[in-house]
Model the fold of this input.
Amino acid sequence: MNTYDVAVIGSGPGGYVAAIRCAQLGMKTAIIEKYSTLGGTCLNVGCIPSKALLDSSHHYEDAMKHFADHGIEIPGEVKLNFKKMIERKQAVVDQTTKGIDFLMNKNKIDVYEGLGSFKDATHIEITSEKETKEIETKNVIIATGSKPATLPFITVDKERIITSTEALSLKEIPKHMIVIGGGVIGLELGQVYRRLGAEVSVVEYMDRIIPTMDSAQSKELMKVMKKQGVKFHLSHKVSAVERKKNEVVITATDKKDKEVTFKGDYCLVSVGRRPYTDGLKLENAGVKVNERGQVEVNDHLQTNVSNIYAIGDVIRGAMLAHKAEEEGVLVAEILAGQKPHIDYNLIPGVVYTWPEVASVGKTEEELKEEGVDYKTGQFPMRALGRARASGDIDGFVKILSDASTDEVLGVHMVGARVADLITEAVTAMEFRASAEDIARMSHAHPTYAEAVKEAALAATENRPLHV
Done:
């Protein structure tokens, strides 16, 4: 029987990064993955393939609607090869997952393919189609991630009633895709298929889309996506989803308690994700889960069993790949006797629609609820020379700072490349910068980042230079 210092169950961003960091710190490490490719949901059926389709569909939309504005004329008709688009997406996935194989080999991490389950707290059984193996390990990191959630009355048939997994590999472009859920996943994939010609209707239970982000972002993104042709039905409670041959009928009640129906050829169920612990046999090791199915951990991400840790989507907190990565590094360094930390308030959230949406820190709603006295500064992207040059004029940067100390408490953006730009805010807040600190930093011209400086000027002394 092979023995290890650490065994990681699950090879998504949290799991494989945890394994790499453990190996870098001198631990003999194994990683266990039930599927034939490494990378978990993110690399195989999540972050990476969805961004590939978002980029491809964006290029198509630009060719159809915006090239002429730039003086680019395409003779003949612009044609969409959807099969080729899906093939390119898969090629990106394949290349990325092979990169994880390389990293495992480079760091001398043993990879086991099969379903990992606890025999007890220090022994893991790995069951594949061919055989069952057993390994012994001093420590275990559970990194099994999450799966798409559904509603009790919905039967996902993976053909017409689908989750994000199936939406990434459709054989045809829907005529009318009804998206249940106005969160990140539903909006990203809804925008992909709207660009490609589908009618898209978003049915959302809450009174706004992306409800966990700042309300100003919700309003701006909905305004822009409405212009793009997406239809929104807010404050609608779905009560039934039925398939009738190639048609899907959704029944819901609106805010006036009136019953309404929606009909389409595809229904994308994107009502969130659930922790995935199926088949782990946690009970054999005595590991506790809470009522939401999350593995319970302390501040060191240690379960109630001292040598077993858990990270990522399977525990509390935002279900984000980069959160899982940070947690994987934290556990590895704790096992090595170091004293790492994570500031969960400074983990950014991003929606990869176009325009992009990005946030870090407190929203305005949270500050009001907490009774914090704050200042706000906001600057529109359309006032930037760089935005006008590229034609990406939608959106804004909003900075919230403490009214007495001027410390930046939250930064919320909508616009071109704000998924990258939000890191400036994370860096500033990590060092507890004031809005004035950001305002006095030189920002290259012309760039989208100038909007951050201008919003900081607005928050500091209400003196932006370009509006």
Notes: The chain has 14 helices and 22 strands. The chain has a mean pLDDT of 97.
